[in-house]
Amino acid sequence: MDDLTFRAAEAVDFSTRIHFNTALEVMEIDLSNVNFADRAIVRQFYDEVDRQMATAGGRWYFLVNYENCVVAPEAWDDYALGGKIANVKYSNGTARFGASEETRQTIRERAEAERFRSNLYATRDEALTVLASLRRRHHFLGRGSRLDPGRAADVLLKIDNVSLRFGGVHALQQVSFEIERGEIVAIIGPNGAGKTSMLNVINGFYHPQEGSITFKGEKRNQMRPYFAASQGIGRTFQNVALFKGMSTLDNIMTGRALKMHKGLLWQFVHWGPAQAEELEHRKAVEQIIDFLEIEHIRKVPVGRLPYGLQKRVELGRALAMEPELLLLDEPMAGMNLEEKEDMSRYILDVNRQFGTTIALIEHDMGVVMDLSNFVVVLDHGVKISEGPPSEIQSDPVVIRAYLGMGH
Amino acid sequence: MFYREVGQFKSSYAADQAIFPIAQDRWFVIGVLLIAFLVVPFFVTDYTLNAVYLPFLIFGLASLGLNILTGYCGQLSFGTGAFMGVGAYSAFKLTTAMPELNLIIVFLAAGLITAVVGMLFGLPSLRIKGFYLAVATLAAQFFLVWLFYKWDWLRNYSATGQITVPPRRFFGVLMTGQAAAPAAKYVLTLAMVTVLALGAKNLVRGRYGRSWMAIRDMDVAAELIGIRPLIAKLSAFGVSSFYVGVAGAMMFVVWLGAAEGGDTFGIQNSFLVLFMIIIGGLGTILGSFLGAAFLVLMPIALKTVMVDALGLSAVFAKHLEYVLMGLLIIFFLILEPHGLARLWQIAKEKLRLWPFPY
Amino acid sequence: MLFFVETVTSGLLAGVMYSLVALGFVLIFKASGVFNFAQGVMALFAGLTLAGFLSGTVPFTHQINSALAMPPWLAIAATVLVMIALAILIERAVLRYLVNQEPIILFMMTLGLAYVLEGAGDLLWGSDVKVLDLGLPSGANDWLLDNFGLYVDQLEIVAAVVAAALVTALAIFFQKTRIGRALRAVADDHQAALSVGISLNTIWAIVWSAAGIVALVAGIMWGAKSGIQFSLSLIALKALPVLILGGFDSVPGAIVGGLIIGVGEKLAEVYFGPLVGGAVENWFAYMLALVFLLVRPEGLFGEKIIRRV
Asked: Quick check: C309 and A166 CB within 8 A?
């Protein structure tokens, strides 16, 4: 069968088809009458997009005109992949209009499979209206603080375009988000979405191949874990990682390691400066013990404690570091309702009393909704959405990601 | 009935953090020390002092050193024998080069030299773990013993290949050689061991001890809460080797008086000390001494029973001793893998409730 | 040049012996996670037993009664039986009670075992040096000597061939048989293996038997070369650098590692030893393995480990 239908009629000059509307922050792409007949022309198109974006810089809203646009079946995969990458890299959101029924159908299917929003509209005006509302919301979130819109955002941690690979496995792909000082941010996503990898990147345990992390205004590509700790990043673990051979008290005292400085000789003698230092920190630790209500298990080896208490001790150990940013990896996994409530209360109290910024991974959506003021959604290492909990809850992309995984 | 902590309240964190928070324990330890210092030197025979008490104290000190590394920091080492050798040869060089140097200073300096050597051989621990590291420490064991033989300067070019301690006095009292009174040697050793053991206890209950145990229990978590593996591991190697070095120096200077490379500091010694801490209890100061006592006394006891009481031939007894020693070790591992110190702990807990457990 | 080739050849042949001992370690470590320090003593014990059967020594008395002397094939078969019985005994009396203990405890157990076997070997057969005469060829291989001027001991060639055969047999056993697959399952995860109905006790008995037989072969080869004596138990120490080089759980690692150590050691002895006063063979292999490990911590055939929290 002859494939004349999808052969390129003429070479398309894409450079004339991309326009930037600075006032609206919209990049308009005119694909009307374009025939994406083979992979070469698809590549040509995205190369042009890359080129234009390199000059323009920043992130834009995409407005795509699909009137009379045809994509050949064999070029669809490349086309969709390119679109996904362009969206992740440059886009604040995309609206499409003018597509034929057939194209709309394909885009919908792709959107379903790849978990992006299809955002298909009949007319350009309609699409522009939607983008405008998106932009307003984004401004509201982006310019002012998420916690207090009247105040400028005080960004504590900025993850910029981070990619992490293990051999051929992509654990994280070009993930970017920000955490403001004083926030409780939840990182959610199905199993294997890269949530724990994200935390590991933040506190220097994994070193991403691309991208950077800016903590307290200092930009880093990689650092050693103890350095992250000394900068004020505390951490608890998915599977309790307490020091099993030590008592609760000693575990929490170990969290003060960075704050104690008396040398080996003083330690050997003990009486005098080393003891004074020890007692000073003991006091601080006792406050944490009081706060977490674990006085009765002070001297018990943690190996003997039930799981819920171990989680609490682990939180105590992280608190002893007096961190500015506290990373909690599934702090409530395997807990019953009552324990979850307790833990939630501790997390909120830590946030309010000490002003500690918290990033937590959690599966229980109820907990996420109640605790966090901002949610980042990861799936297959890609950030598929972010926003306040109320929005995330109703975001079709997020719902699909979860339902798709059988949750 | 008499061993109770009821009614003993602590009103300060300092009291709560004391080494022996329970009064009875405190009095017991003070009592034992008083007897050890004031009674034993006068009432125990010279032979027993030499054959039992000195090796017990010296091996106890070496076990303490290894226990810091293996029991507290979780780094297995087979190099203890050679590190004792480093201490011994250092002491030999120091005391022959500077005859006036006080013996205590000689011991401490020998310990420091061993600490440096130990840290050097501890460097691989930053990259490798577990049995791989243990086998790597065998490199230290064999290399050092080879050095003891090949480096003539180390033994002042003595033709016999041995090192022999020259007569040395400690504040006027002869401490070395056959002529010295075992009681004097014993008191000096006991004093040294007491101070060092107390220091070790202080170390392990302080921030260094916690960082060692953190590395032992979960190295990844330790690193993520701000413990630098480099410092924690190398300090454990350093402190451990210091203790082992002092033990080696005292073994040579005070106890044996002469030593020769692999014969005295061979791998069999590394294993012996390792047995002591396993049988005594990993990660306890008390266990180091219990284990040393057990393994110093057992061969003597076995020999007494087999040769003296049962009249077996010495060769046969020697072989049988091997079998029995091996069996006892296996038996102990099955019975209580956490060692004698755990048994002692359990006994104390029982005693606390005795005779009314409910 | 010829000298170099001769050195390398003798290094390779010695390396085969190291591989043989290392193989015994690997077998046990793979299936039970036990670092069996008694492997060397097992070789000594097997060698003593074999020598005892061959000469007709009466156990415990150390008297030779030539009426009891067995022909080589029978003596070897009997020793194999002894080693199997020993493996079963170890499993029944010791291993069973130490399931789920930490690796260091199991390791210490094997140290205890080494003491027991060493004492028992001496008690049973006496501690004098025994000549092991199984009629294996020895002396220079004439063909190599005549045609290439290479001096290669025939015994070493035999040892290499036997080792190669044993390794092949073990590889087939591990890959193709049902028990081999069970062994690999146990190595991967004790609990998972238990839950699919593999009997740990049986597996351990089999593995220790296999290790015992490997020890016997090592005992025969080393014993034929320099007699059966206490120093035989020290060959275990020779095999340890091979293990860190090749990995505790890799059969190919044990073989390649053994060859590398064998050659490296011989070259060091010949070219580096004289510079520092000789006798470097005791520690050179360890240093070699250590340096290698610092460059490549995962060993020869290990995969790069991804740490997780």
From this structure: no
* Separation CA A208–CA B294 (nearest Å): 53
User: Is C101's Cβ below 8 Å from some Cβ in B?
Assistant: yes
- Range(s) of the domain holding residue A95: 4-143
E strand spans, A248-316? none
Interface test with C, best of B121, B131, B318, B338 (most C CBs within 10 A): B131
Q: For residues C198 and C73, is the Cβ–Cβ distance under 8 A? A: no
Return the structure tokens found at C97.
């009670």
Are residues A349 and A212 located together in one domain of the fold? Answer: yes
Q: Which tokens go with A363?
A: 């599966």
- Subunits in contact with chain A (3 or more CB pairs closer than 8 Å): B, C
pLDDT in tens, C199-250: 778 888 888 888 888 888 888 887 877 777 777 777 777 788 888 888 877 7
Report if residue A50 sits inside a domain: yes
Least confident range from A253-267, A358-372, B315-329: namely B315-329
Q: Which amino acid is at B333?
A: L
A-facing residues of C in 268-307 (CB < 8 A) are 306-307
Contact B262, B145 (CB under 8 A): yes
* Other chains touching C, judged by 3 or more CB pairs under 8 Å: A, B
Does residue A148 lie within any of the structural domains? no
Residue after which a domain boundary falls, among A114, A143, A172: A143
Domain boundary among A143, A163, A185: A143
C-alpha Rg value of chain B to the nearest Å: 21
- Give contacts of A166 with chain C, Cβ < 8 Å: 306
Each domain of chain C, given as residue ranges in start order, spans: 23-236
What are the structure tokens assigned to B13, written together?
């964190």
Q: Give the percent of chain C with pLDDT over 70.
A: 94
C220 close to C231: Cβ distance less than 8 angstroms: no
A232 and A273 belong to one structural domain: yes
CATH number of the domain enclosing A22: 3.30.750
Q: What CA–CA distance (Å, rounded) separates B11 from C152?
A: 80
Whether residue A57 is found in the same domain as residue A175? no
Residues A218 and A125 in one domain: no
ipTM over 0.90: no
Question: For residue C39, which of C235, C259, C258 has the smallest C-alpha distance?
Answer: C235
Are A121 and A202 part of one and the same domain?
A: no
Q: Is C158:C137 a contact under the CB 8 Å cutoff?
A: yes
**Which of chain A's residues have a Cβ under 8 Å away from the Cβ of C309?**
196, 200, 205, 237-239, 241, 329
Best residue of B112, B211, B225 to probe chain A, by most A CBs closer than 10 Å: B225
**Cα–Cα dist C249/B132, whole Å:** 12
User: How many domains does chain A divide into?
Assistant: 2
**B234-281 pLDDT, tens per residue?**
999 999 999 999 999 999 999 998 888 888 898 889 989 998 998 888
- Distance, CA of C281 to CA of C270 (rounded, Å): 10
Of C240, C244, C279, the CB nearest to B146: C279
Q: Which of B96, B92, B93, B64 is nearest to B80 (CA)?
A: B64
Angle between helices B267-280 and B314-335 (to 10 degrees): 40
Is the pLDDT score of A348 beyond 90?
A: yes
Q: What is the 3-state secondary structure (H, E, C) of C154-190?
A: HHHHHHHHHHHHHHHHHHHHHHHCHHHHHHHHHHHCH
Q: Which two tokens stand for residue A167?
A: 């051999």
For residue A202, being part of any structural domain is answered with yes
**Minimal Cβ distance to B220: which of A241, A278, A318:** A241
Kindly report the nearest CA distance between residue A208 and chain C, in angstroms: 14
Mean pLDDT (whole number) for B200-212: 92
Tell whether A56 is covered by a domain.
yes
pLDDT value of residue A75: 85
- A137 & A162 share domain: no
- Give the Cβ contact number of residue A391 at 10 Å: 14
